[in-house]
Write a structure and sequence with these properties.
single chain, alpha/beta, 8-stranded mixed beta sheet, 5 helices, 10 strands, about 20% strand, disordered N terminus
Length: about 170
């Protein structure tokens, strides 16, 4: 369980994986993050060592988001709210970051007018928190079925530089 700077408790969902298709950052206890890349871990390496080697601070994790980056955000209740807040807090250092998202159920501060020259949101499904920005042409809407999204990423049709996702810390099995 994490506690955000505003005192809200945030609980992770899902399972930790040591192999991922894209660079992703996982929320961990005490506000730490872990980098996961698409490289295979040899059998001689324990997951605990790999996990420990890849832990980093929220600030260091978000350094992967650079000017012009295409950032995919976890979807619905799996949206990493602490990472999103960290990204918004770094907005003054960013320009032209495209945020790709299937559906937003949490806050969508990156769609606020004050971030128009920092972030551009591209929704694959229009939710209540992004509808106004899309209707005002400050965000984009690319309609598609949810099952199409992984293949579009895999084939590079919709390229991604960074994926911000939420997972739970590993259990005793990794």
């Amino acid at each position: 369980m994490l506690e955000s700077t505003s005192g809200d408790r945030i609980q992770g969902h899902g399972r930790m994986k040591l192999m991922a298709l894209f660079i992703c950052w996982s929320l961990l206890e005490r506000g730490e993050a872990i980098e996961t890349t698409a490289r295979t871990v040899s059998m001689s390496q324990t997951w605990q060592r790999v996990y420990s080697d890849r832990k980093t601070s929220l600030e260091n994790a978000l350094l992967a988001v650079r000017r012009g980056a295409k950032v995919f955000l976890g979807t619905a209740c799996g949206e990493p709210q602490l990472l999103v807040q960290g990204l918004v807090d770094r907005a003054h250092k960013l320009h032209d970051v495209q945020i790709l998202h299937f559906v937003t159920l949490g806050n969508a501060p990156y769609t606020e007018r004050r971030f128009d020259d920092r972030f551009r949101h591209n929704a694959f499904f229009v939710g209540p928190n992004t509808r106004d920005a899309i209707n005002e042409a400050r965000a984009d809407y690319t309609p598609m079925f949810i099952y199409e999204i992984p293949d579009l990423f895999r084939r590079g049709i919709v390229p991604i530089d960074v994926a911000l996702i939420q997972t739970s810390p590993p259990d005793s099995h990794g």
